[in-house]
Amino acid sequence: MQQFFSNLESFLKHYLNFDWESFLTACLSAGIKLIVFVITATIIKSILISISNHSFRNYLSRKTSTFNRSKTLMKLVENCIQYLYYFVLIYGILSLLGLPVSSLLAGAGIAGIAIGLGAQGFLTDVMNGFFILLEHQFDVGDTLTIDTYVGTVTNVGLRSTQLTGFDGTIYYIPNRQILVVGNSSQGHMRATVDIFVYNDTPIKKMELIINDVTEANKSQLPNIYKGPIFNGLSSLPSGQLYYRVTLFVDAGLQVDVQSKLLTLYLEAMAEEGIDLPNTPVSSIPTPR
């Protein structure tokens, strides 16, 4: 019991003799420095992102790059600025708190081999992401097929790629898992227009009308790269005949071009008195 009271007396003496004023002043000073540092770093990050976005918008306005490509690079630069911001923020906070950052980094070097073994996947992601961007395999806004995932690219980073499916599902795919990519938004895609016909439909006259309609509407459909190409007659399993026309258009616009041209072709043929089945989008033959 005597020992307890002796220890209590020593603690009280130390507590009462402690320089609380200097301690509180040091805490307040460190707190102010931390707040100023965080605010300054955040402002600098926002300025850098704003400058980057403005530069890419100017770059795009000169039409030296596609919109999707500029958007991809803009996202990448923004991610790099974010990573740099967090690194500087953590480093600065540790330094202001008086922690030996250099010693911590040196200590981290000792464990570098063990950490490196666990970071192989991360480094592979970064290397694959670098080559994806360098080789221009895809951009933000492109429609991709990656393994079993199909969707639109919403973000491209050095570590992962974000894909949004047509049902709204968001997929986060590590870049090291992107081995084979099907890009439906590069180059030219095929648009097929199928027109239901009867056995005695005048095919030659149809082809002349299709050519004339396509030429007359090229100003409204400037995305047609090649065509029309006449693939000839074919039939459904039900026996219904149809005539297939193929055109090559800018990637991503094939459905829109197909729908518009089908409407124009049918209207022109009706005006020329060509009798056709009533439902060209149906696989069920229409009785004549």
TrEMBL record:
- Membrane-crossing segments per the record: 20-44, 83-99, 105-123
Tell whether Transmembrane is among the UniProt keywords.
Answer: yes
InterPro entries per the UniProt record, alphabetical:
LSM_dom_sf, MS_channel_1st, MscS_beta-dom_sf, MscS_channel_2nd, MscS_channel_C_sf, MscS_channel_TM-2, YbiO_bact
User: What's the main place this protein lives?
Assistant: membrane
Key words, A-Z: Cell membrane, Membrane, Transmembrane, Transmembrane helix
Could you confirm whether the keyword Cell membrane appears in this record? yes
Checking Pfam families in the record gives: MS_channel_1st, MS_channel_2nd
Residues of the Mechanosensitive ion channel MscS domain: 123-184
Location of this chain's protein in the cell: Cell membrane
Extract one GO cellular component term from the record: plasma membrane
Indicate how the chain sits in the lipid bilayer: Multi-pass membrane protein
GO MF term (any one):
mechanosensitive monoatomic ion channel activity
What superkingdom does the record give?
A: Bacteria
**Limits of the Mechanosensitive ion channel transmembrane helices 2/3 domain:** 79-120
Spell out the Gene3D superfamilies in the cross-references: 1.10.287.1260, 2.30.30.60, 3.30.70.100
What is the documented function of this protein?
Answer: May play a role in resistance to osmotic downshock.
State the family it belongs to.
Belongs to the MscS (TC 1.A.23) family.
- What is this protein's name? Mechanosensitive ion channel family protein
